[in-house]
Amino acid sequence: MKVTSPLLPLRRQIYDHWRTAILDRRAVPGDRVPSTRELAETLGVARATVTDAYEQLIAEGFFEASQGSGTFVCRQLPEGVQSRAPRITQAPPIRLSRYGRELTEDVLRPLPPPGVVHFATGSPDVNQFPIAIWRKLIARHLRTPSVRLLDYAEDPAGYAPLREQVAQYVTRMRAVRCTPEQVIIVNGSQQALDLAVRVLVDPGDPVAFENPGYQSAYRILRAYGVRLHPVPVDEEGLVVRKLPRQCRLIYVTPSHQFPTGVVLSLARRLELLAQARLRNAVILEDDYSSEYRYAGAPLTSLQGLAAGVPIVYMGTFSKVMFPGLRVGYLIVPPALMEPFRCAKWLADRQTNQRDQAALADFLREGHLDRHIRRMRRLYGQRRAALVDALHEHFGDRVEILGDVAGMHVMARFRDRAVVRRALKRGVWVTTCQRYYVEGTAPLDTELMLGFANLSERAIREGIRRLA
Ligand SMILES: Cc1ncc(COP(=O)(O)O)c(C=O)c1O
User: Fold this and answer.
1) Whose CA is nearest to atom 7 of ligand 1?
2) Which residues face 71 on adjacent strands?
3) How far is the CA of 117 from the centre of ligand 1 (A)?
4) Is 435 left (phi over 0), alpha (psi -120 to 50) or beta?
5) Model confidence pLDDT, tens digit, residues 307-363
6) What digits encode the pLDDT tens for the residues 268-321?
7) pLDDT tens by residue, 340-354
8) d(C-alpha 128, C-alpha 367), whole Å
9) Distance between CA atoms of 421 and 426, rounded to whole angstroms?
């Protein structure tokens, strides 16, 4: 035998050698194996190393030691260890669940090649984040770690001071009506979606979904096996009168529809609440980037308007802080607290407690409000630069949709070849095709142009190249 691999400890290499020899029938029951002293001398290794390996092989039933006469390949190897059938080298296909079968690669974000102007949707400018303050707050909780932060959380719904801060924040910013006891801290709103689907619907249940809509939401719903009812969206948001007659759940993005960017009008909001009540449906309100509105005050949440309709409200710190934080929140009606709390516990126990503690301070000390104010100014300028450049270069060949809000603009082009040309000119854009439920996308070229993560200069250059 040769001992060669620099990566594995010698003990492990000796073990592997004998184990493989037995499985491959190169060593058969009753074969005598070299003594530990002999093998150690042959290999030039310490005898203890060989002894360790032999002990493991004996413990696992590959070897047996016979007092006074030496060590042997075990005479009673369990059946099948050395079966005459050829060892299977190619595993048979693994059967996936229906959920697993839906998980094709296109659920992942397409990544651009390096060096292009990337109009990334949904990405904030993380370079602007006040990282020094964040570092200080994290350090504060590392320096004097409360034992509570190191342990399993007392409550999977989240760290109490953060739940308190989130309740105040959504009440103040979004006119959500809630108490801290209704807040569940989750790992980004993607986990909020995942939990809500599991807790609220069964495979086969009818679910109404904005079309076009948030791909990461409908892919979960579809993988889970619900009956998906795409409902069209116009300039006032979800076309409520097109809701299916029955539905258990209605997913909406009222403050900045994803991807069109339109705001659900007040009349439609009231109609939606009435229709949900009639159908006994739960509304899942995804308020993902409501903080960013560049003209007038943001429209408040649907949750704050509702009476007699259960609304599960979800928000995220991915856009106003940074996506890598992976912290979001659910605000659920009191009657749903227990199932959501248990679902969170079974999913992953709890969200990172140190980050929750630092985030609670970040909110309490006013850093988040300051950061949002600053970013609102900056993103407003970037949005204006984008719209300006689109008008300048495309004139009436482009239609810009949506409200003056969010972190992306949806632009409809008469020019069909624009996407094909874009990459050739070093510009990476996303078409809205993937946000339509299959077979319903229009023929127009609709692009999602994210502006938050690009300088005004890069934005202008990108649109110039696109044109
Ligand atoms: C509609 C919608 N909801 C939620 C999110 C936020 O996701 P997360 O909180 O998981 O980062 C996004 C991000 O792009 C989004 O577009």
Assistant:
1) 189
2) 33, 65
3) 22
4) alpha
5) 889 999 999 999 999 999 999 999 999 999 999 999 999 999 999 999 999 999 999
6) 999 999 999 999 999 999 999 889 999 887 679 999 999 889 999 999 999 999
7) 999 999 999 999 999
8) 13
9) 9
Q: Does residue 214's CB lie within 6 angstroms of at least one atom of ligand 1?
A: yes
Cβ(465)–Cβ(426) below 8 Å: yes
445 in ligand 1 pocket by Cβ < 6 Å? no
Atom of ligand 1 nearest to the CA of 189: 9
- Map tokens 């790992």 to a residue: 187
Cβ proximity of 197 and 218 under 8 Å: no
Per the listing, tokens 């006074």 go with 68
| C-alpha to C-alpha distance for 166 and 224, rounded to whole angstroms | 29
Ligand 1 atom nearest residue 318's Cα = 11
Per-position DSSP letters for 136-193, written without gaps between them: HHHHHHHHS--HHHHS--S-TT--HHHHHHHHHHHHHHH-----GGGEEEESHHHHHH
User: What is the reported pTM?
Assistant: 0.90
What is the phi/psi pair of residue 331, to 5°? -120, 115
